[in-house]
Amino acid sequence: KLLLEITDLAVEVNKKEILSDIDLYIDKGETHVLLGPNGSGKSTLFMSILGFPKYNITRGEILFKGEDITKLSTTQRVEMGVGVSFQNPPAIRGVRLKDLLKIEDHKGLESQDEELSPELMDLTRKLKFDESFLERDVNLGFSGGEVKRSEILQLLAQKPDFIMFDEPDSGVDIENVELLAEEINTLLDKDKKPGLRERSGLLITHLGYILNFVGANTAHVLMDGKIACSGDPTEILEDIRKEGFRGCVECCEIH
Ligand code: ADP
Ligand code: MG
Ligand code: MG
User: Fold this and answer.
1) Fewest Cβ atoms closer than 10 Å to its Cβ: which of 93, 104, 185, 189?
2) What positions does the domain ABC transporter occupy (predicted)?
3) Ligand 1: which residue has its CA nearest to atom 19?
4) Which ligand is nearest to the CA of 223?
5) Is 186 in a helix, a strand, or coil?
6) CA gyration radius, the chain
7) How many domains does the chain have?
8) Mean pLDDT of all residues belonging to the chain
9) If you take atom 10 of ligand 1, which residue's CA is the nearest one?
10) Which residue out of 9, 11, 12, 13 has the highest number of ligand 1 atoms within 8 Å of its CB and is therefore the one to mutate?
11) What does each C-alpha distance from 202 to 136, 155, 216 come to in angstroms?
12) What is the pLDDT at residue 251?
């Protein structure tokens, strides 16, 4: 069985159909990329997988680890191992990043400790996070890149089996995209050999520049709420660069 199996999904928002005929299958250890123009429904698919109530599934099903999660709450999905990085996460005044990390990091432990676990601290050092960063209020006055990095730290603490990123590269300076991509690669086990990769991912990106640095197995192009084509990320990106999203659909072989 695959980690995530989406079959014939249709989704309405405010009684309007936004997505239809969505089939998406992601295996353990795989990273898929979702490309598409603004307004094509990328974030809607993201929110539907996460189970936000206003994204009304009218057809089809979503299986996670073989279990039908279509009717489960967002909290239940997160508890099953779905992790997310939002496009525009809010700032939280008065809550330090460390406070937020402690919730997941200390879960199931007696510890009311001020310190994070050695494992998490090792990972923060590996990803070159400055310790003073942990003392700052969540996302308050953070740069675009710092917001994304704080989300990555939160995901590290949560240890999900599947991570969705909604345009992690939006609002990030071009010179920081490579650094961000390295962190995403670490999160998605890309530094391990293919057979040893445990974690899966779905990376949504508008422009695709980040794909120069993030390893992905398959890309899908979403157009007007449908998956217009799927295939090798490098080839699809090349088609988009040459002819735009429409061109890609025309030369895609797999439908
Ligand atoms: P993308 O992430 O690819 O830019 P979205 O999923 O945000 O696309 O939007 C897909 C479509 O759904 C758009 O046409 C948008 O107008 C519509 N949409 C998004 N959010 C809402 C909402 N809250 N209410 C009504 N329509 C929405
Ligand atoms: Mg958008
Ligand atoms: Mg979006």
Assistant:
1) 93
2) 4-249
3) 44
4) 1
5) helix
6) 18
7) 1
8) 90
9) 41
10) 13
11) 29, 14, 9
12) 56
**CA separation for the pair 144, 147 (Å, rounded):** 5
Q: Which pTM does this prediction carry? A: 0.89
Q: Which residues line ligand 1 (CB under 6 A)?
A: 13-14, 18, 36, 38-44
Residue 145 lies in a domain: no
pLDDT of 54 above 50: yes
Ligand located closest to 44 CA? 1
Provide the domain limits for residue 236: 4-87+160-251
* C-alpha to C-alpha distance for 13 and 106, rounded to whole angstroms: 37
List, for residues 230-239, the tens digit of each pLDDT value.
999 999 988 8
Phi, psi of 79 (to 5 degrees): -65, -30
Domain presence at residue 117: no
Ligand 1 atom closest to Cα of 36? Answer: 3
DSSP state of 91: P
Tell me whether residue 13 is in a domain: yes
Residue 103, domain member (yes or no): no
Beta bridge partners of 137: 96
**Placement of tokens 């967002």 in the chain:** 74
* In the predicted structure, residue 44 carries a pLDDT above the cut 90: yes
Q: How far is CA 61 from CA 68, 104, 214, 230, in A?
A: 7, 29, 29, 20
Q: Identify whether the C-beta of residue 84 lies closer than 8 Å to the C-beta of residue 34.
A: no
CATH code, 11: 3.40.50.300
Q: Which atom of ligand 1 is nearest to the CA of 44?
A: 6
